[in-house]
Backbone:
């Protein structure tokens, strides 16, 4: 029998190589499928609880949805709801209220959080107690928190009583019922509520700084303020950026404190976008109009979310 | 392992972060305390049956009435359990309406009577025409307490609630004034009590339907009418209110008060008057340690006082509407049930026979409210407002009422805004 020397099949080595490549490819595909399997619950959750509601919100915002049509077909009205909002003078006032509110919450929340973190960065007798107090404040439901503050800021509340008793004021300060004060008062309380979270995150960042750095600075004659300015603040800069975005988002979605403390009043003096959306949808039962307001708020927050995502990615690249 | 950061992945990251954030914003728009089970409904099968009743009562006496009704019905109907579910006032309507989209809800709904048309439009209430037509005692009820929409009845009020002028008799005696019968009397009395170091009057200035309900008598006292809204009567009424806040007779803090807080403030004893309702009788009896009384609000011939109260209806998705009707007919709509409410909270029975009962007619406080019904009683909400616009009207006027008390708007500006808002709702 003649033997054809021409190899009609791939060489042994080649066959093995292809076989290995095929096996690797199959393994890779299998791994990918496994990954998809693990991702599936989160993806389903996201679709059901995030994408679908957002889609419904967008659909509602361009439809005529009232109490009598909520459970029927929604008539498409284009941008009518948005136009109706923008045409209302109260809407501009509400946007301004929202910006002021977010500004106060953000500035005080960050500055207060950093200050508290610096104070709590050194171990001491009271540090553990204060830290647990911060966690307690952070964990308090806003409805409870708001009710307590409403009581404290009342005409006969703690602050006015102290002011009157000590002679600092001759009349009770109308914290919650004068339009010059009400928005600032609620914003201050909101800022107070976010300080614990910011303080805990800032403290974690500060605790990451080696003690040797501080010791070296002290040997060079640095004061505490100089330590804060030249060591702590630069080190917590990335944390500040993340907290900045989170606090702004927190301020934007603040609703509970306004609901409990002022119900948007006096008049509409403390009405912000989330509260306006609530009133339009769940008090006036104009769900389309409320959805349009919510979309405006969501768009503003999404812009901030994009900044947040970018800052996180930048930090990842740097690290 | 190398980490890749392709543009596609970045986009997904951005989109995920944005969507999650959006949901957080939306989640922040709905309060979440006081969670009733929307699936809770009558269990129709078997001997044991559960009947769910949603209400918004938080006052102890009002809660007691609900408990008494539960006991009454359960003792008359073996095997039936009545489950009273509290839902905060501000959340009741929205929960009922959003629950309707999933065809869930309670068997019986006890709600603000003014919201009957809103709830009927939202498919929350079942029509009760057949039940009402076959109800032997239907003729005991005046037509004004039957809430209908487009020819169908959806709810009935078992009792009437309205506002009156509560007064602290000890303070009035001290400053030497009689309970007022006219606006001039009231203003003069307020000047005197404030000069004597007391607070003048408490009321609610909350920027919602409660504010509108409380402001309406004063607005109509100057001739305001929703059928023909004019600015001048409102300017006059709002001017009087701001005179009260300027003089210290009324605290601007009222803008943060619902109707419960001002009465508690009055009951503490340092306030001469309270604009509040007959449902506070139980609270007054248990809290106030001074002599007090009630007179009709001194709002003249043109003044109107809403005849409010809770409407009672059957949930559109009740699995056992017959049992729900039986509950209503044996509690809210029965003589015995109405006398329980009259006794515990001072409600004025809607039934003619119950209203003539000794327990009602011998009560001096209730007599003042009964006089007010005859003299100034008005349908709530105003028939001049279309059912579709009631929620808007109450909110708009409530917010302006709040602005006036808080000093955010001048009487003239508030009046102009109110007229413009009401014109837009037509």
Residues:
């Amino acid at each position: 029998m003649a033997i054809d020397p021409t190899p009609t099949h791939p060489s042994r080595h080649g066959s093995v190589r292809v076989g290995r490549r095929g096996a690797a490819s199959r393994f890779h595909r299998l791994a990918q499928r496994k990954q998809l399997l693990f991702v599936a619950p989160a993806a389903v959750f996201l679709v059901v609880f995030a994408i679908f509601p957002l889609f419904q919100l967008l659909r509602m915002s361009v439809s005529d949805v009232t109490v009598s049509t909520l459970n029927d077909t929604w008539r498409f009205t284009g941008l009518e709801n948005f136009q109706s909002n923008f045409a209302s003078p109260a809407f501009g006032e509400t946007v301004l209220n929202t910006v002021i509110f977010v500004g106060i919450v953000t500035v005080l929340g960050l500055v207060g959080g950093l200050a508290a973190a610096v104070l709590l960065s050194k171990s001491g007798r009271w540090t553990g107690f204060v830290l647990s107090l911060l966690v307690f404040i952070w964990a308090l439901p806003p409805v409870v928190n708001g009710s307590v503050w409403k009581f404290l800021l009342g005409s006969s509340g703690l602050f006015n009583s102290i002011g009157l008793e000590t002679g600092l004021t001759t009349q009770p300060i109308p914290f919650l019922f004068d339009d010059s004060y009400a928005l600032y008062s609620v914003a201050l309380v909101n800022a107070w509520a976010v300080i614990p979270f910011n303080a805990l995150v800032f403290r974690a960042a500060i605790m990451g700084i080696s003690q040797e750095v501080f010791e070296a600075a002290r040997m060079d004659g640095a004061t505490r303020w100089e330590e804060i300015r030249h060591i702590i603040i630069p080190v917590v800069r990335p944390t500040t950026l993340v907290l900045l975005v989170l606090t702004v988002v927190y301020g934007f979605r603040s609703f509970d404190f306004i609901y409990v403390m002022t119900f948007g009043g006096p008049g509409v003096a403390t009405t912000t976008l989330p509260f306006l959306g609530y009133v339009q949808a769940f008090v006036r039962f104009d769900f389309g109009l409320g959805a349009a307001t919510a979309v405006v708020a969501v768009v503003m927050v999404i812009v901030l979310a994009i900044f947040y995502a970018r800052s996180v990615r930048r930090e990842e690249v740097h690290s | 392992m190398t980490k890749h950061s392709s543009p596609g992945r970045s986009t997904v990251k951005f989109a995920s972060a944005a969507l999650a954030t959006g949901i957080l914003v939306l989640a922040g728009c709905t309060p979440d305390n006081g969670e009733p089970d929307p699936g809770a409904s009558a269990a129709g099968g078997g001997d044991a049956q559960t009947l769910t009743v949603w209400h918004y009562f938080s006052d102890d006496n009002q809660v007691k009435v609900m408990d008494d009704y539960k006991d009454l019905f359960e003792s008359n109907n073996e095997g039936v359990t009545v489950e009273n579910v509290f839902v905060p006032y501000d959340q009741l309507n929205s929960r009922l309406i959003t629950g309707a989209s999933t065809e869930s809800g309670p068997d019986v709904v006890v709600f603000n009577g003014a919201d009957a048309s809103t709830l009927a439009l939202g498919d929350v209430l079942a029509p009760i025409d057949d039940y009402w037509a076959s109800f032997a005692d239907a003729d005991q009820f005046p037509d004004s307490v039957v809430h209908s929409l487009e020819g169908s009845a959806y709810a009935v009020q078992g009792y009437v609630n309205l506002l009156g002028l509560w007064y602290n008799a000890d303070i009035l005696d001290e400053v030497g004034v009689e309970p007022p019968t006219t606006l001039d009397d009231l203003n003069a009395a307020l000047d005197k009590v404030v000069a004597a170091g007391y607070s003048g009057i408490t009321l609610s200035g909350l920027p919602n339907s409660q504010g509108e309900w409380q402001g309406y008598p004063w607005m109509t006292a100057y001739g305001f009418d929703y059928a023909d809204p004019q600015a001048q009567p409102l300017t006059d009424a709002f001017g009087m209110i701001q005179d009260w806040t300027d003089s210290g007779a009324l605290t601007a803090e009222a803008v943060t008060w619902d109707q419960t807080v001002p009465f508690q403030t009055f009951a503490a004893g340092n306030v001469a008057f309270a604009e509040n309702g007959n449902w506070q009788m139980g609270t007054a009896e248990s809290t106030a340690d001074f002599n007090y009384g009630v007179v009709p609000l001194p709002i003249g011939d043109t003044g109107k006082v809403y005849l409010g109260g809770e409407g009672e209806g059957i949930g559109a998705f009740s699995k056992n509407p017959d049992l729900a009707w039986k509950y209503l007919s044996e509690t809210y709509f029965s003589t015995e049930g109405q006398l329980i409410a009259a006794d515990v909270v001072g409600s004025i029975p809607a039934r003619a026979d119950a209203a003539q009962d000794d327990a009602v007619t011998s009560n001096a406080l209730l007599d003042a409210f009964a006089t007010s019904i005859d003299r100034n009683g008005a349908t709530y909400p105003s028939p001049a407002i279309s059912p579709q616009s009631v929620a808007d009207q109450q909110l708009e006027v409530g917010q302006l009422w709040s602005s006036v008390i808080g000093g955010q708007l001048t009487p003239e500006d508030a009046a102009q805004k109110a007229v413009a808002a009401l014109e837009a709702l037509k």
Summary: Residues 1-12 of chain A have pLDDT under 50 and may be disordered. Chain A touches chain B through 63 residues (CB under 8 Å).
